[in-house]
User: Fold these one by one.
Assistant:
Number 1:
Amino acid sequence: MTTFDRHIIRRLLTGYLFLVIALIVFFILLHYLEYVDDFLDRQAPMDEIYSIYYPSYIPEIVRLISPLAVFLSCVYLTGKLAQTMQLTALQTSSISMYRLLRPYAFVALLITGVMIWFNGWIVPVTNQTVLEYDGKYLKDAPKQVDINDIHRQNSPGSIVSVGFFDRRSNTAYRVSLQRFDGDHRLIERVDAQNMAWQDSLWRLPDAVVRSFHEDGSERRRVVEQLDTLLLVYPRDLARTERDIESMTIPIAADYVDALRRSGAGNIGRAEVGYYTKYSYPLANLILVLIALPLAAVRRRGGQAVQIGLGLAMAFAYLAAQKLTEPFGYSGELDPILTAFVPHALFFLIALLMLMRARK
């Protein structure tokens, strides 16, 4: 690695860290001004809002703004090199655009790799606190997807039906567990007024167990307390629109598999959220590949025009992601395509811009 490479890497990372800090402050101020009325109306403890809520929110902010920060850092540095004719001098000394790309790509890959880990394992942990406070004190708190008449497949031939689930106490009401044989004949049914999650298993007090035999006879017994291990967990019964945000990648994978296995409906949002944990960090790399050829051209108006064009491109990228998400949520578009198509599209744009750039 040459002195020139180290110089570019150092300036890119310095600009990136500065912009991350500045955007964190801006984001928190904007969020506070928008929701301060909710905090006051619901009597939120402001000392906890300042000392717990917003510090826990910072990792999520970093996840969101990282692509924009590295993009603007790249645009600013490259634009400055272009405006001061340093790029022209480099190119006349036989340093090509592809050679110039090397330190930029190193920084982009470094940040992308870190953000995949950060997005997959760090942000979900802090988001658990954020979502808890959002549910308590914000009017537009995450909405519960399923409220009444919830049906889940526990395993092949086994169905769990719940009239209502209280997520605060982890208690299901009007519960029915049904088991069928290979011919889809009901062979056993367990009914209880409630079912509570305790010590990593479900407990049904005063459960009525009925067994049905092939000759049409029925056996009925009452169990004072029935403890049962089900493959359906509280999170599967009390889903909200943002549950996936508080799950690490391994937990989210198990969660999505459980939803598919249990036959839950409206799982598009969870599937898109899971695949986005992998796809969103790629924006850090793709936006750098766009920023270099975009800012390497001298334009009238100087760096103000460069930054303006850069912001327009970055927001177009964000808009493409947001426009495709509703199709994935509704199931009209495959969740994997929903998560990756916008990134693939702008990656192709980046390659075209690099090919057309002055070598």
Number 2:
Amino acid sequence: MQVLVTGAAGFIGYSLIIALLARGDSVIGIDNCNDYYDPALKEARLAGLREQGGNRFTFLRLDFADHAALVAALEPHTFDRIVHLGAQAGVRYSIENPHAYVQSNLVGHVNLLEVARHRQVEHMVYASSSSVYGGNTKLPFSVEDRVDFPLSLYAATKKADELMSETYAHLYRIPLTGLRFFTVYGPWGRPDMMLWIFTRKLFAGETLPVFNHGDMYRDFTYIDDIIAGVVASLDNPPPDDGEVKAGGSLKPHRLYNIGNNQAESLMTVIGLLEEATGRTADIEFLPMQPGDVPRTFADIAAITRALGYRPTPRIESGVPNFVAWYRDYHGL
């Protein structure tokens, strides 16, 4: 199978492409490698992809929000399916730089939908986010819940992506699957995520800023489980059969949560980081940040029932795995 993957130099994109190449697929990767976080990490990921993929991995360095450039770059290439993971990430950064989210997450998503439409792809899987659940207090979060009250612009753009996808599934009958990711972590992770930030601060002897006075819970999901869910989704396009899909659509469009189905205390994670790094945390307890939520918890019944997705609860091993990779990457 030939797969187009956006966000190829990102955490999930890199990990997905490694898995696709390992099973024999060919991949066209797209990324603009911007400086939202250290581009050297993105280049290191790309080097690994080139090494593993050889002539089965093609990389296109471009901004998929530029429609003309995207169409021109893809013109010589063929692909059967798309996994659209590229986006401007980060809940907090969306408060500082809203226009970046409009370009990447809205304009960019429409551009990929148009590519899927005109190239008549068999299936497009795209990244949504657990942040769409906003201020929902019902736990665990289910794909059947209303998600009309986002707490950040990032969340609003991801909800908008789901709505635009529903429209394209209706108008053009494109098979589409949206995946709401829950706090992904593991080797090759993102430097703007809590696990990386706290690990860096522990090794540097710096204070850890812990919001909501430590009363924070996240459905931490190890990268291997995320990739298993993405690949299973990619391999199983939703049928255009008029039946209700996960998330409520009657079109060939479905939504799945991909999480660990277990909310872990942030303080428990800090304890695991202390053990793995051999350092004692100096903690500064702070109020809740704007746009953040105190708890995430994924109901994964829909994806488990349809695709057999079963994550392995592994935070006790997953956190040390990340720290071991971090030490190796930084030569500590």
